[in-house]
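Input sequence (275 aa), recorded before submission:
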Amino acid sequence: MPLADLHLHLLPAVDDGPPDWETTEAMLTQLAANDVKLVAPTPHVWEGDWQQVGERHRGLDALVQRAAEKGIQVVGAAELWASPDLPERWEQLLPLTYGGKGKYALVEFDLSEMPLFAEWLLFQFKVRGVTPIIAHPERYFWVQEDERNLYRLLAAGALVQVGADALLRPETPMGKTAWRLLQNGLVDFLASDWHAPEPSYPLAQAVQKLKGALNSEAITRLVWVVPRQIAAGNTVQPAWHSSPVRHEVQAFSSGSGNLPRRRHWWQFLWRWRKR
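Predicted structure, token format:
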């Protein structure tokens, strides 16, 4: 089946992705070989990058041309670090939404602790007409510890992107969390978060692994249907609306959910080391 990948790092010498065009070309060759038809390079935008945020899309036009030669469509985007001042940077932020359409934005949170401002921040996105997408929540210790922390963000209007690499390592804490989120119907789409030609492209491998767990329609939704809708700026029905745990998520939306106890970062670190 064709694939769409809305979280990977392809722009050379911009962040921790490929260092040069030669490496980017090697990645594009692998993408084409795996029938990837749509990608969104998502360079990191950290707190210190806003002074010259336009540099995060340096080389995007050239990438569009090179990818088109291999039959791959490219839309611009970014991986935004969650910070409480994002609403103050709204004019700078909008070009970093998917395709610059101001409809969807990929947001990355701190691994160790759920920020106190997380729900407020996502609300600020929603009231401005932008749907936030939580990048790889399976990596966050606070989701591994208590999945209900993610329910809070879903209730605030967020979508969920799970990393293909986690599905390939089901024995790890992040792998167990990814599979649990998938089985509970909370995942809106999958992406690779691929940074270099090695290891080989994980999204295609994850699709093969999913064939024993999900039907083809469900897999196609995760790796093609929903990503295409997001890239086009079309409305997407959140996966949790038809999830087995949707009533629990709705409880958080109404304010009646049993809120998990917030933990300090060192508590997550201690639990992780014990594993």
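Checked by second reader. Confidence is low (pLDDT under 50) at residues 264-272.
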